[in-house]
Amino acid sequence: MKASAPGKLNVTLACGAPDERGYHPLRTVFMAVDLREEVAIAPAPAWSVRTRMLSETGQELALPQELLELPTNANLAVKAAKAVLREAGIESAAALTITKRVPVAGGMAGGSADAAAAIVATAATFGVKGDWQQLARTLGADVPFALAGNAALGTVYGDHLFPVPACRRHWVFACANGAGLSTPTVFKRFDQLPRPTHPSWVLPATSLRPLEGQLGEALIDPDPRRLAGMMFNDLQAAAVAERGALAEVIEAATSAGALCAQVSGSGPTVVALAPDGESGRRIAAKLQKLDSVARAIVTQGPALGARIEGK
Ligand code: C5P
């Protein structure tokens, strides 16, 4: 059985002060995009993973070193498959084949999409039924959204979701050259910077509170300019402090016609909202020329969550 799950961007990301566990409460609007990870799974005598990476045009790309060196047991898709089998009381191992299309650069939750696709593929292969949101949460804060897809407000750590309607738009992702940014390092840097202030509707809340007012309206407004005016990422200043070149990418995207450009998640990928597909391709071509950009990709979102793709 084969399943797929989408990469994501954060349209807005409000971050609060760390709690007693050292984790930061988040209030974020996620949007899933058309770049999809695929996980095929078959029962096998021992656990194994084969991974390949494809460009958006289907060309085989070299796998980054960190993925080549990842032990099978540390692979989030394997952990997800094991968790489903454990919950169902099934003793079996499986062979996984992962086809990646979400850039590994960071900030787009490709690893979480692998886990979400693995949950769905494992459940289908072994005939297990369940509501997987809770299990997804135990694997990582972005896994529930990769399962759910479309657009959603994430509260608590971004892992408790309220679906929200949203218009489809064109998005340009600029993946950074060089190493990724460490998520804990970006959060630590965030704590050293002045805390951002927000109107009350974007405050990070550990309580479950649905999306209110203007942002919800902007998400369904056919004119993308309204949404562009509301996008923000509290982690951006910290990511830029760690990686100065990101400021240049944001600036270049905006001067190439992006309605808004910001760091995606904790970076180092930058995401830009394009007025339309043709402008998106023009923005991507300009970003592609920057030394600090490895790949610039135009895609669309919202996109469906994790789903079966057949055998
Ligand atoms: O979720 P993930 O395991 O990638 O998080 C890695 C680290 O990033 C955490 O151990 C924590 O230090 C930091 N983090 C945080 N607040 C969050 C998510 C992650 O402080 N909401």
TrEMBL record:
Pfam families on file: GHMP_kinases_C, GHMP_kinases_N
UniProt-annotated binding residues for ATP: 103-113
TM spans (from-to): none
Domain GHMP kinase N-terminal: 75-149
Keywords: ATP-binding, Isoprene biosynthesis, Kinase, Nucleotide-binding, Transferase
Record-level Gene Ontology MF annotations: 4-(cytidine 5'-diphospho)-2-C-methyl-D-erythritol kinase activity; ATP binding
EC code: 2.7.1.148
Pathway: Isoprenoid biosynthesis; isopentenyl diphosphate biosynthesis via DXP pathway; isopentenyl diphosphate from 1-deoxy-D-xylulose 5-phosphate: step 3/6
Catalytic center residues: 8, 142
Listed GO biological process terms: isopentenyl diphosphate biosynthetic process, methylerythritol 4-phosphate pathway; terpenoid biosynthetic process
Catalysed reaction, written as an equation: 4-CDP-2-C-methyl-D-erythritol + ATP = 4-CDP-2-C-methyl-D-erythritol 2-phosphate + ADP + H(+)
InterPro entries: GHMP_kinase_C_dom, GHMP_kinase_C_sf, GHMP_kinase_N_dom, IspE, Ribosomal_Su5_D2-typ_SF, Ribsml_uS5_D2-typ_fold_subgr
Superkingdom of source: Bacteria
Domain GHMP kinase C-terminal, chain residue ranges per copy: 217-289
Function comment: Catalyzes the phosphorylation of the position 2 hydroxy group of 4-diphosphocytidyl-2C-methyl-D-erythritol.
HAMAP family: IspE
Family as reported in the entry's similarity comment: Belongs to the GHMP kinase family. IspE subfamily.
Protein's name in the database: 4-diphosphocytidyl-2-C-methyl-D-erythritol kinase
Organism of origin: Winkia neuii
